[in-house]
Amino acid sequence: MTFNKIKMAIYSTILTNYYGFKLTKFKKFSDKKKLRIEYSTKLLNKLNIKIKVVNEDRLPRDGQYLLISNHRSIIDPLIIETATQNTNIFGHWVAKKELYNSAFFGKFVRNSGTILLDREASKMSGFFKDIKTSVAAGSSIFIFPEGTRNNTNFVISEFKEGSQIIALKNRLPILPIFIRSKADKILKSAIKDSSKEQIIEIEVGEVIDYKHRNISLENSYKEQFNIA
Q1: Rounded to an integer, what distance in angstroms lies between the CA atom of residue 196 and that of residue 180?
Q2: Under 8 Å CB-to-CB from 205, ≥6 apart: which residues?
Q3: H or E element: which one contains 94?
Q4: How many domains does the chain have?
Q5: What sign does the dihedral 48-115-150-66 (CA atoms) show?
Q6: Across the strands, what pairs with 178?
Q7: Dihedrals phi, psi of 177, to nearest 5 degrees
Q8: Distance CA 126, CA 143 (A)
Q9: Could you tell me the CATH number of the domain that includes residue 45?
Q10: Per residue in 57-94, pLDDT tens?
Q11: For residue 105, what pLDDT is reported?
């Protein structure tokens, strides 16, 4: 491991845990959103990564949505938080159990506003109940429909059906976001050498009506962003 990588690892660990502890003091969605944006901004600035939002005018300023995005990099949530920082939309992130128990991310994930998804659970009723409670409290839901990071050569991997079910059950319009840049490769490059500014481009799609249950969410997403 190079000196730059070691330095970045130490910085990100300290920053993540600092905000993990700080978030325990705040319960209001607006306060959590502010701290999530602060954290995202500081870490991306340290990496010298800037976010360019295409079709930013499509981002709603208010309301509740199921925000969906493709997923290639560990910094994808930071990218989304940065892209939506000028809106009043707060979303609970759907987070897998491994992140909840992570020594690096655990405290931040548990306190920043997330809903636990345990894919090993025999029943999913508890998960969907937590989603409903969150929506009833006024929150949006942020999710990666692919279920995990896409390490394939395809632009996106197959969407899990759970995302469309969440939208239908909770009557949430679907807000699609596409991280067009290869954020995983950009992150690796930035960790190695952050002296050069790098740009991650994301695109905001048109809101999808949750009532279109006969239309595949994956196909709608591909069509909007011209993904073959």
Answers
A1: 20
A2: 55, 58, 175, 176, 177, 178, 221, 224, 225
A3: strand 91-96
A4: 1
A5: negative
A6: 203
A7: -130, 135
A8: 17
A9: 3.40.1130
A10: 999 999 999 999 999 999 999 999 999 999 999 999 99
A11: 84
| pLDDT of 214 strictly over 80 | no
Q: What is the mean pLDDT of residues 201-227?
A: 93
Range of the domain at 158: 3-224
Phi, psi torsion values for 22, nearest 5 degrees: -60, -35
Find out whether 158 and 61 touch, Cβ atoms under 8 Å. Answer: no
pLDDT single digits (tens) 102-115: 888 899 999 999 99
What pLDDT does 38 receive?
98
8 Å CB contact between 138 and 89: no
DSSP state of 172: P
Check the CA dihedral 119-122-125-126 and report its sign.
negative
Q: What is the pLDDT of residue 97?
A: 84
Task: Give the three-state DSSP class for 69.
Answer: strand
Predicted pLDDT of residue 107: 93
Q: Look at the block and give the residue holding tokens 């790098």.
A: 198
Rounded (10°) angle between helices 183-192 and 29-47: 60
Distance CA 218, CA 150 (A): 14
> Phi and psi (nearest 5°) for 203?
-125, 135
